[in-house]
Design goal:
Rossmann fold; two-stranded antiparallel ribbon; 207 residues; SAM-dependent_MTases_sf; 28% helix; seven-stranded mixed β-sheet; alpha/beta; PCMT; 6 helices; S-adenosyl-L-methionine
């Protein structure tokens, strides 16, 4: 039922806006976004817009998800840390790009729902963790790639510490005004920072 809407989203809102990474496009084509939205929003699953998933959180706009994943340049053997599981949509896409995905969610209801949903849909290389994203998840560190799906006012030092050498971290950062930031760590641990574009994400929640 949703295949034509998904194809239109890929063609018009991703390729049409400059997304070129074939692996990202394939991964996003393989994940049924309608399974990750609320029942009342299923008919607009593939609109290029964020949608509420309850508890003050959203499922991100497909274009922004694709843009962030393209910038991260995830490799097949990578371990990825996602902060903010939400509905599980982005984790599902990440699982098609990386060897292993660890995703952290602070809202207990979303943690339980996201974990159940991802398991029921057969995503096996994802570990869903209940916890404070500001702390990251040290148990599985270091991570080759880190992606934040909510905006802190500053990038948490714990996450920078848990980033592997030659790793990349992407995050929306700010309060009322936010911008997408890319951090890269070289083989000596030195960090470089690049400002990418203005964005609007829900604030990152702390314990």
């Amino acid at each position: 039922m949703f295949e034509s809407e998904k194809s239109k989203m890929i063609k018009d809102h991703l390729i049409g806006r400059g997304i070129r990474d074939a692996r990202v496009l394939k991964a996003m084509s393989s994940v049924p976004r309608e399974k990750f939205v609320r029942e009342r929003d299923k008919l607009i699953s593939y609109a290029d817009t964020p949608l509420s998933i309850g508890w003050g959180q959203t499922i991100s706009q497909p274009y922004i998800v694709a843009y962030m994943l393209e910038v991260l340049d995830i490799e097949k053997e990578n371990r990825v840390l996602e902060i903010g599981t939400g509905s599980g949509y982005e984790a599902a896409i990440l699982s098609r790009l990386a060897k292993e995905v660890v995703t952290v969610e602070i809202v207990e209801e979303l943690y339980k729902d996201g974990k159940r949903k991802l398991e029921n849909l057969g995503y096996e290389n994802i570990e869903v963790v209940s916890g404070d994203g500001y702390r990251g998840y040290k148990k599985k560190a270091p991570y080759d790639r880190i992606i934040l799906s909510a905006a802190p006012t500053d990038i948490p030092e714990n996450l920078v510490d848990q980033l592997a050498a030659k790793g990349k971290l992407i995050a929306p950062v700010g309060g009322i005004f936010q911008e997408l930031i890319l951090l890269e760590k070289d083989e000596f641990g030195k960090i470089s920072k690049k400002r990418l574009l203005p964005v609007r994400f829900v604030p990152m929640v702390r314990e």
